[in-house]
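Practice problem: predict the structure.
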Amino acid sequence: MNKKYVVRLAVEERGQLEALVKRGKGQAYRIKHANILLAVDADGPAWPDAKVAEAFSCHVGTVANVRQRLVEHGLARALERKPQAEPSRQRSLDGRGEARLIALACSQAPDGRSRWTLKLLADKLVELEVVEAICEQTVRRSLKKTSCSLTGVNVG
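Answer:
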């Protein structure tokens, strides 16, 4: 079967990949991609995709994708993972929601309280219908990105 993307590694590329594999330090997927490229090299062993997939415990599609990325985008992109087109989860708080959170955190605390707590802020955001639901840790992470402090003491 004729391959659509034929891998022909230059001497420098082969040396770089062999060094990466030999060193054995780095992300496991990068080492696996290097092994795949070394195995499918038309000027080297030229293994079929099914044999490479079995040898390196991956899917045949992975071998084809790594081969395609090398031919289309070069060695650096072939060693990396495919970039994610969009995040797996949508953010709970967008820019407008974060602005409301900061304004709320900097406002006067509710009656009977000396300051806002993360739980109170999360509950208030739901009450104001900024979000449907939000956990305290999301509130904490959003506030941590700013210089806003819930303690009322200037630490900066």
